[in-house]
Amino acid sequence: MNIIVIGATSGIGRAVAEIYMSRGHRVGITGRRANLLEEIAGCHQDCEVFVKPFDVSADTASDSLAELVEDMGGVDICLYSSGYGHTNTSLEPSLELGQVDVNAKGFVRCAVWLFNYWAVNGLKGHLAVISSVASILPLGVCPAYSATKKFEAFYLETLRQLAVIRKADIGFTAIKPGFVDTDFIHGRHFPMTIRRDRAAGQIVKAIARKRKSVVINRRWALLGMLMKLIPRPVWNWGGRFFRPYTDMF
Ligand SMILES: NC(=O)c1ccc[n+]([C@@H]2O[C@H](COP(=O)([O-])OP(=O)(O)OC[C@H]3O[C@@H](n4cnc5c(N)ncnc54)[C@H](OP(=O)(O)O)[C@@H]3O)[C@@H](O)[C@H]2O)c1
Questions:
Q1: CATH assignment at residue 70
Q2: Among residues 59, 135, 162, 207, which one has the fewest Cβ atoms lying within 10 Å of its Cβ?
């Protein structure tokens, strides 16, 4: 199978890409840090790895994605893992807008190109995105992060209905991890932090099973269900308990 991981230089994306490589799939890897992509490819010379460095926030990102798909001779599955987050209680505009550029606009650039590629050519495809448990309820300590993670998951829902309208054979998976031990959390230890290789294994399984939405892992799924039961005014009032956590990531 041909699989692309957008944002494979580190963290969850890299761990997922390495699972697919170890299973002998043809894997396309992207991210801005070209040296890391070459390093990953160098460690997996026993399988076909296609390297394409690009910045998802650039207007040319979809052209780069198109070139990668052409180099690979097609794509069956794509995981969008590019993203970052910042707590930002002072609402520094550049921090807010930067997250919108990568988590929302970059995702849309890649998602629309892939959707049209599969739909127009009558091909089967699967698109997955790493959203977050931060999408379950609005988090005031990180407004753009929480909102863009909700956007990613909700955008997939809209594409799912569009696929029905356009009679396209495309599957979608929104993945919502809790804390995972990647550069994202800067070496800090939060309760219920998941090892990245374990998270990656569960993500690969969820995509194979064509799950529509999955919280990683079970404990976070349970917490997520409980969070959803909290009435919104109570949740907002509870914001005072987040005051010590204004620089979580
Ligand atoms: N770790 C957690 O606790 C956690 C929890 C929930 C959700 N998530 C989500 O998981 C995803 C992956 O994060 P991670 O935890 O694996 O952290 P990470 O190790 O920092 O990985 C982030 C990835 O995004 C790529 N990226 C960032 N900006 C980019 C840009 N402008 N263009 C292209 N690629 C870009 C990075 O590649 P380059 O820097 O090389 O471009 C890197 O490969 C993120 O969307 C994050 O929101 C993480």
A1: 3.40.50.720
A2: 59
Separation CA 47–CA 24 (nearest Å): 6
Residue in 40, 130, 214 to alter for ligand 1 test, most ligand atoms within 8 A of Cβ: 130
Cα 39 to its chain centre, rounded Å, is 22
Q: Taking Cα atoms as reference points, which of 104, 63, 53 lies closest to residue 80? A: 104
pLDDT of 186 higher than 90? no
Q: How many domains does the chain have?
A: 1
What is the extent of the structural domain holding 134?
A: 2-245
Cα radius of gyration rounded to whole Å, the chain: 18
Beta bridge pairs of residue 30: 6, 52
Report d(CA 18, CA 21) in Å as an integer: 5
pLDDT of amino acid 181: 94
- pLDDT tens by residue, 79-106: 999 999 999 999 999 999 999 999 999 9
d(C-alpha 188, C-alpha 186), whole Å: 6
- Choosing from 18, 184, 188 the residue with most ligand 1 atoms within 8 A of its CB, the one to mutate for a pocket test is 184
Locate the ligand 1 atom nearest the alpha carbon of residue 55 and give its number: 32
**Integer Cα distance of 94 and 100 in angstroms:** 10
Which of 11, 21, 222 minimizes the C-alpha distance to 136? 222
Coil/strand/helix, residue 149: helix
Q: Is the CB of 33 under 6 A from ligand 1?
A: yes
- Tens-digit pLDDT profile for residues 200-210: 999 999 999 99
